[in-house]
Amino acid sequence: MERRELEARTKAFAVAVIALCDSIRTHPNGWTTSKQLLDCSSSVGANYRATSRARSRAEWIAKMGTVVEEADESVYWLELAQEARMGDRAAVMRLLDEARQLRAVFAASYATSRRNRRKKRSTDH
Q: What is the pTM of this model?
């Protein structure tokens, strides 16, 4: 998947989460979940965009690690919303699937980059 596609996909994910959070806030205990979910879901795309401005391979890898963490946190809060029956069920399920897919894409890229960096360092010695 190309960078532009991923940037568009992460932004669409954040926009959809914003809409979902409107319905989550109506749940008696939904404010905290909504706030946390808004923060991490929007951070996925923002931090992914920041990887394009990394000044080194090490910085890129570090930024990508943050992307993976934020995607994983999005999965957590969506699972919590699902189990607590907060928000529109269909939207939660759809966004949970998307969050898991994004996490898998970014985690694979992150793991490959770390593995390649270790290989390069071991051949430099």
A: 0.90
